[in-house]
Amino acid sequence: MKRIFALFVLSLSLLVSHAQSFKNLFLKMPQEVCPVLSEYNRLEIVDNQKHDKTMQTRNLFRTFSTMKELTDDYAYLVVSPQSEKEFKMLTKHDGTRIIMVISTIFCDNTPDSSVAFYSTDWEPLRTLDYYTLTNVDHFRKITIDKDTDQLTVTATNAPLLLQTHGGGKTNEPFTLHYTLRWSTEESRFILND
Fold it and tell me: Higher model confidence: residue 72 or residue 3?
């Protein structure tokens, strides 16, 4: 019984130290990874979580940044109303841990994301070593029929290998086709009826 209790305490302490290690990595993150958060801002976010407060801080742009989720291996940070960052700890086949950072900006509510990878010392890693780019033809194809002056746009939600927000089901891939025609009255393309 004492052995089982000792193993339980040891595994619990490993889980706690593992959880602290990601917070420590967040605190040690260079400002270049998230330029609007100073070391003080990051410390305030972690301290607010420790005291069960909203994980929010006034960033260097004098707006608020809010950490929506901070777990053992994942963080979701709303940097501003137009940008967010997600951090995910990944373990390679050889046991090496790396950090994936997904940075998203919103322009007219349209998200544009980029992904970067770092060692646990926040040294940048070559992205293409960990992420294979999908052929651009899988995302959008625009064709114009010269005889009818119709423009056809094909947009495909290519299946992504990454899941966001700490899990859940990835969306099923889909393809959307729509055809537009030139309207001389409006001087623009409009949806074909």
Answer: 72
